[in-house]
Amino acid sequence: MSKIIVREAETALQMNDFIRFPWKIYKDDKHWVPPLLFDIKKNLDKKKNPFFEHATVKFYLAYKDNELAGRIAAIKNDKHNEFHNDKAGFFGFFECINNQEVANALFDEAKNFLKSLGLDEIRGPINLSTNDEVGLLVEGFDSDPYLMMTYNPRYYIDLIEGYGYKKIKDVYAFLIREDIAKNKKVMDKLTRVSNIVLKKENIRIRDINVKDFNNELQRVREVYNKAWENNWGFVPMTDKEFDYIAESFKMILDKNLVYFAETSDGKPVGFSLALPNMNEVFKSLNGRVFPFGIFKILFGKKNVHSIRLLTMGIIKDYHQRGIEAVFIKHTIERSLANGYIAAEISWILEDNMPMVQTAINLDADKYKTYRIYNINI
Asked: Burial code of 34-68, b = ≥16 C-beta within 10 A, e = fewer?
């Protein structure tokens, strides 16, 4: 009988083990993109990440025969439970050797902690909230993940479902390649619809003004929280959280891929954000930015050839008016003009039929599926 022990990661040394454990799991996996160590350390630092101002989180490490064998985070997000009026907990940052006993020990520890806080269900994997990385990869293991999208061994499906977790929601990633520009039927329709929408709704598309970044950020925040409030799992971000995330995007932002939809009097009704897929650069850094990685990021950005369409937020009063088509046409034209040859639209809820249908109409490939699980406790 092997001996399995789970301990809370409390010391700096234990948190270092928690952060670096994935290098053991993925050492021979050609599609894994190592996270930037300074970035994940900052995100998990309860003094630096404003998420922890309204959340209770414990990090656990599992040892099998005195050797590190797995990790998990147990998360209570007060903002989620206030917004949705439920008692849900979450697990995240799950990594584990291919051993059900080790996985069970980690899930037990997370369950016992969250149950002690009065919660009655657990969802995941979510790292740390739906505003961060979401879901377990269940389809599409044959290519690298895009920026801020998860990746995991296939056997994690068995470990999670073997404990008793059941699917609660799938989210999709669609891939568009540069061939879209050669598809005259698709592009002609997209152009026709876009022109009709701009004229009928009296809408204009405006680039972000990076010289007025703070005020632009306020406009983005207003649109974001209004646009997503009815989406499954959505949790509005606090001002501090929004500023924190925006600051992390600053270095990799391409101003050609960020824009507003506005009424004639300047009222923002939609916002579109695509980011260069910096995973193309990060993959070669092996998690290390210093001493020379920062230069690889700054100079490597110009050699990134794909983007992730991260957010297309449209306020409720302007839903189903075709503004999505305007954003996508704009993004395709801008990305191709700036040397990008592929775009991932992610993530899209499986029951968000307008967006799913929009992707299908673009002849995009639904090439990855991510699953969020749930269990009652």
From this structure: bbbbeebeebbeeeebbbeebbebbbbbbbbeeeb
Per the CB < 8 A criterion, the answer to whether 332 and 177 are in contact is no
Average pLDDT over residues 130-135: 95
Plot region of 222 (φ>0 → left; ψ -120 to 50 → alpha; else → beta): alpha
Alpha helices in 171-212 (DSSP H): 184-200
139-181 tens-digit pLDDT:
999 999 999 999 999 999 999 999 999 999 999 999 999 888 8
**In 10 A of CB 212, how many CB atoms?**
11
Closest CA to 177 of 168, 169, 186, 166: 186
| Among the listed residues 334, 146, 123, 136, the one whose alpha carbon sits nearest the alpha carbon of residue 235 | 123
Q: Which tokens is 299 given?
A: 């100079």
Q: Residues 129-136: what's their mean pLDDT?
A: 96
Q: CA 186, CA 308: separation in Å to the nearest integer?
A: 20
**Rounded distance between C-alpha atoms, residue 12 and residue 290, angstroms:** 20
Is the distance from CB of 348 to CB of 151 less than 8 angstroms?
Answer: no
Report the candidate in 364, 267, 249, 247 with the shortest Cα–Cα distance to residue 315: 267
Residue type, 206: R
State how far the Cα of 158 lies from the Cα of 179, in Å rounded to an integer.
37
CB 179 within 8 A of CB 134: no
DSSP 11: S
Q: In the chain, what percentage of residues exceed pLDDT 70?
A: 98
Residue 195 has pLDDT above 70, yes or no: yes
- pTM for the complete prediction? 0.94
What are the CA-CA distances from residue 219 to residues 73, 248, 251, 262, 330 (Å)?
Answer: 33, 18, 20, 11, 20
Mean pLDDT of the chain: 93
Cis peptide leading into 128, omega within 30 of 0?
yes
